[in-house]
């Protein structure tokens, strides 16, 4: 996954303006970056540095997450054609790039990188020898198989050309400039009006506006839509890392969501409940942390007798039987995760009804859903998802409440605040297991999804091998790995005798256990994190928050690059 930004402006701007927008997309990729300002191409390996003085009126830029070709300057975007008359940035994967490249090389084109993306600029350069740009772009879309959002500039021209299929692309318009980017966060501080690309559309973008065309060159009407993002503080200011800042924002995010579900989003929420009651089958589709939130939701709903299934989106089509009476509910922070989009496409082909909960308004998943609700967690800058998880879980609990789950959600945010106040104690505990190579997190029933989520956060942020599993599965093999000193985080819900006996089992083999529990009998044990709630729905959420803090402080102790863990670009599966 990569991020792209282009700006066409009436007044001159510097590269730092372009790179400032790009920085907001850094979660999409951050191994190298580059830009073109109409005169020169600059590329760098490493994190985006917002700098650059020369003034321009048109520029394109790119932050990369390597897929084809190593992390090197030549592989960083933009990529120029042979005579530098065409310069392009691209997000996506061109599956047939080798075939296209072979043809272009035969025609004399010389390639400077190992990327699939470079074919775009050479293809356009070749096409312009005989055709006008719009026809060349239509040919390009016909010739490419794969996914793309690409921005193209021609030397000496003040336009940006954009093409898109499956990779996200959105356009923002303000008084003096037009900006095109991978998502609205890139320009949410500049404008609140955006136009969203559909697949196989071409746009010509200038400082004064834009024009959209379909693949046959026919004009497409594209009204601007107002969007409203929660104001997000641009800097993490008081906090060492965005991850901590975002964990501390959880109470506010939960309050905002619950308030909205009872007020402005009430009609949509009521409609969702109505659809759930009517559906013969309910299937959740999501990935990673969002999957763990849906698994927690599956548990809540099963408790109140609502049949449902939750599937990891990348396996959805292999395990789901979708028909016209099936409601598919996608959970996604970004709203752009390709595996989730694929599941929804599949579900739609099978006649299923699509609904979603996303944190990024107007994202692809939101736009392809018949009904979509906004999570309202605010921007997540840290690659590891935290406040979105907590809000997703609160949403699930709110749905379950409609079906009879007994819970007082009015004080959920306060309970989270109470737990966050214990962070120094949690830091102390995390520092004890930080040196470990392997760690296990166990739970049962309600606490099984929580165990999975805590383990994911620990792996992702601290790079400690962590397995989150059902306590009951230990004896079927994994217990062989528990030895003297192995840390085991045990998520214990009140008097659940089974998880208590699993905890004893690992202790008998020398494990150092770390209980996260709402069972007062366990609170006095060393390394125990006491969670004060006797409602198990809320306990699930609070225990996950304790685990997020553990992951954060262990990673901090180890000096890990917390906001951007290695090998993971936020949220969207590369395709
Ligand atoms: C983990 C994390 C990922 C995402 C997953 C799905 O901290 O952030 O596991 O949860 O990539 O992303 P969304 O929710 O954007 O669909």
Features:
globular; disordered C terminus; binds fructose -6-phosphate; alpha/beta; 575 residues; 7-stranded antiparallel β-sheet; 8-stranded antiparallel β-sheet; 35% helix
Profile the largest sheet.
8 strands, antiparallel
What's the total count of β strands?
25
Oligomer: single chain
**Contiguous runs where pLDDT drops below 50 for at least 5 residues:** 568-575
State the strand order across the main sheet. 3-2-4-1-10-9-11-15
Percent helix: 25-40%
Radius of gyration: 25 Å
Look at the structure and give the mean pLDDT: 92
In short:
The chain is α/β, with parallel strands linked by helices and 575 residues long. Helix content is 35%, strand content 24%.
Describe this structure in words.
With 575 residues, the protein is α/β, with parallel strands linked by helices. The protein is 35% helix and 24% strand. It has 18 helices and 25 strands. Strand 7 and strand 8 form a beta hairpin. Mean pLDDT is 92; it is low at 568-575. It binds fructose -6-phosphate.
Map the helices and strands.
Blueprint: E1 3-14, H1 15-23, E2 32-36, E3 41-45, E4 55-64, E5 79-80, E6 86-94, H2 97-106, H3 119-127, H4 133-143, E7 146-154, E8 160-165, E9 170-173, E10 177-181, E11 193-196, E12 201-206, E13 209-214, E14 219-220, E15 225-226, H5 242-248, H6 250-262, H7 266-278, E16 281-286, H8 288-303, E17 309-312, H9 316-319, E18 326-332, H10 338-349, E19 353-358, H11 364-368, E20 371-374, H12 387-402, H13 412-420, H14 423-433, E21 438-443, H15 447-462, E22 465-470, E23 487-492, H16 497-508, E24 512-517, H17 520-523, E25 529-530, H18 536-557
Parallel strand pairs: 16-17, 16-18, 18-19, 19-20, 21-22, 21-23, 23-24, 24-25
Antiparallel strand pairs: 1-4, 1-10, 2-3, 2-4, 5-6, 6-7, 7-8, 8-12, 9-10, 9-11, 11-15, 12-13, 13-14
